[in-house]
Description:
The chain is α/β, with parallel strands linked by helices. It is built from 13 helices and eight strands. Helix content is 47%, strand content 11%. The termini are far apart.
Amino acid sequence: MASSDTATKRSQLLARIFSEGVPKLWCPALTHYDCEGKIHAQRIAAHLRHMSQHVRGFLIPGSTGDGWELSDREARELIEIALDQAQKLELHLLIGALKPDVDSMLKVIRDTIDLLKSRTGESDIEKSLSKSCVCGLAICPPRGKEVSQKEMEKALESILKSEVPIALYQLPQVTQNEMGAELVSNLAAGFENFFMLKDTSGTDRVIASGKDLGSVFMVRGAERDYAKWLKPAGGRYDGFLLSTANCFAKELRQMMTDLEEGRVDAANKESQRLTGVISDVFDLVSPFPDGNPFANANKAMDHFFAFGPDAATVLPPRLHAGSSLPVEMIVETEKILERYGLMPRKGYLV
């Protein structure tokens, strides 16, 4: 059980970081590349501007943004782009330290804090974060099926002792393991700087356990059947951190507003439509060998949100692996978007 003192301090931390409240919709933004495979700063900036109308919180780099594949140099370049845009657009950034082991995670955290201190001229961690529009760093448990809950807890404690605001990321699809409810509850009781949990497992075991997590902000990352998971609908999550906010931020935000204002039927209808289009595109891209299906599906759909209805005539999106999505896949994505009435009239790059 989380102690009341720790929960109170965490609530105070959240109030300092998010003066207008914690955003309820977050997005792990895509990483775009130019035709030579270099990070495409202008395209990323345009995409963030487009999404910022409806999303105020971003995880960069997340899994959908190739966070597990980027080199340290690429990640640094991407973070610098995001920091510039966050200040212009008044966004909240959660910096992903997506590494397979504790030492690598701690290095990313140290390097990120050093970067923020250098950019802001602030020696105090919290002030440098605030001036940079960074709310904290996101980490997963160490990778490996063999990692026990005790080993996992010890590893995560060593990172939380850094006192940097930390979001824990449940991602068994990559880490090959899950943080148990008891483990998460223990960390919530012991560390006020553990401020957010993102659960992309699809099993939702932590939140279903009913454990007292003492004001930790809970966001769901698993796609499909969205409406039922939020507190206004009787669910237990505070918000979402969704890859599909790259493309459907407007629709997701409206669905959440409908729930908050009691329009449950409208919210359920939109939830079903989004579930349908996302399921179809994910099924379409899943056989492609490069990248991950979350990034690939969103890149295929974002291609149309960027270039509009004629996007199939534009070179397909490039992946971090160096390949591009097949033209045939883009053409089929066009048909799916049209079928669900989700084809944009004009692209944000046009």
